Amino acid sequence: MKNRALVAMGIPAGPCAEEAKRVIAEAHAAGSTVRAAGDTLQSIIASPDAYLDDARYGVLASHLKAHQVAAKAFTPRQSVAPYRIWGEHLEPDSVRQLQNACSLPVAVAGALMPDAHVGYGLPIGGVLATEHAVIPYAVGVDIACRMKMTVLDLPVEALETQRERLVSVLERETCFGIGGGFRVKRQHEVMDADWRVTPVTADLKDRAWKQLGSSGSGNHFVEFGTLSVSDDAVGLPRGTYLALLSHSGSRGSGAAVAAHYSTLARRLHPELPQSLAELAWLDLDTEAGQEYWEAMELMGRYAAANHALIHQYIARALNVEVRLDVENHHNFAWRETHQRPDGTEREVIVHRKGATPAGEGVVGIIPGSMATPGYVVRGKGSTASLLSAAHGAGRRMSRTQARKTLSWQDAQALLRERQVTLLSAGLDEVPMVYKDIDEVMAAQQDLVEVLARFDPRLVKMAPSGEPPED
């Protein structure tokens, strides 16, 4: 039985769930049915005291009893931490997730971006400031997922006149898919870092090296397109350029770090009710908190290295210079100083899960979809949004719904209309699954200003059927 099914029964993740699985396995081996085992579990959940001395069920009863005692000790904030919402008609469940996060004892303030949708713990598009605590699921599973754009010294006309060459380079110098990696390891100084900073990262170095420079799956992509610069502040004169844009994160290594420390956080906070369990935190004064922070920082450098190599190898294969380089993280936590309502300042931990840093003057990238524009933006430094903005268009339908209701025929017709060549992707990533990027941008005019517009032309993503890593 999976953790989700056990949680639905009332058995929390961690020691309780592991012991319940052992009990079910023993019952199955003894010839008991799943239904009978489930009935027994329900009985233990209802009255753990009655099973404390039972040779078969005593350990599970003890774990459940301890969890129930701890849960009664939970004291939420007297009032929800202040938060602001940008955008209209957001999913009620995503709003509820932010409200839950702002009810945590460690919460200081929150914000919800106009691309928001439901995630684990904190919603995608959620921003949360906490007091000396980090929440693994408020950072996200794909730690340090990021955007990177380089403007290449090629004429825009190359998208037509050298199309086959550009396609060939994209196919040869990128790698997508769960577990995907290069046969010949690529080299970057991040692999010279001390991966023994935590026991978890120490065991991940070989996997990370194999996947170094690759892109993963889900909404991750590498694409050529045109960049129309409308403000010289972007670093180039106004005009239209050929650009390379990529989106991906820390691959399997980041996912392993997230899985380990989110599980650990839940075990350290059995007092949290089920609605808040995925928001369990790690105190930064503890060994666990320091370990996660070190691992997260390393995953940030690793994700940046992946992008650096993608852009380096493609530029080298094309034998061209890079004229502009812009990049930014999302799915990360930062130590920042923010003002209290009374005007005084304090250090907080700002989690941006699917949100772009948008401090005053900070340049970042907010993509659309494979057939809609993305934007290079400059932050306006809004304190109400915790110096944050949206990280993309945001999904308007689930992957399951997309596969059930959409067709490749309609998607390809739209791609042709927008002059986009799609090399590979899943049906659950076609443009129709995303919100209108221009509506998202209009909803956050007080957070960022647009410096340039990117329009995709040649797009590569993980092939259809790959499980998502985003």
Automatic annotation (TrEMBL):
This is 3'-phosphate/5'-hydroxy nucleic acid ligase. One of its GO terms (molecular function) is manganese ion binding. One of its GO terms (biological process) is RNA repair. Coiled coil: none annotated. The keyword Nucleotide-binding applies. It comes from the Bacteria. Mn(2+) 1 binds at residues 142, 220. InterPro entries: RtcB (IPR001233), RtcB-like (IPR052915), RtcB-like_sf (IPR036025). Its EC number is 6.5.1.8. Keywords: GTP-binding, Ligase, Manganese, Metal-binding, Nucleotide-binding, RNA repair. Its cofactor is Mn(2+). The active site is at residue 391. It catalyses: a 3'-end 3'-phospho-ribonucleotide-RNA + a 5'-end dephospho-ribonucleoside-RNA + GTP = a ribonucleotidyl-ribonucleotide-RNA + GMP + diphosphate. Mn(2+) 2 binds at residues 247, 330. GMP binds at residues 219-223, 330-331, 367-370, 391-394. Binds 2 manganese ions per subunit. The keyword GTP-binding applies. Pfam families: RtcB (PF01139).
